[in-house]
Design brief:
Number of helices: 6
Order of helices and strands: HHHHHH
Distance between the termini: 74 Å
Number of strands: 0
Largest sheet: none
Length: 130
Amino acid sequence: MFKVLFMGSPTCCRKSAFDTVATAPVFFLGVVGLLALAACGPPRGDAEAGRRWYAMAHCDTCHGEDGHGGRGRPPALAGLQLGYGQFQGKIRQAGDGIMPSTGPEVLSDQRLVDMYLFLRQEKAGAAGSR
């Protein structure tokens, strides 16, 4: 035991030049990946166009004119807290018999981004609170 303390780390724990060289690319790719994610800000779109697409897609029938909820039990969407990927997934993979599935042939990705921004900008609260 004293030999290990005074002579440095045991052979099993020493790093070789290969360990350092093999670890560097993994570290570099991790840093690049994090920087890429940081650069991915919120999607760009037009909230006013999103208001129009929201009405044209008849979302207002159930979710209310401004996303504050409507008839039945659909969730209010005003002040949306979902990330864009979650929102897109819910719209594209709906079709549960209650909410229709809306593929890109019905609502393009750009129109979906516009609707997302519209709903994020609307204030949560009672209907007609604008």
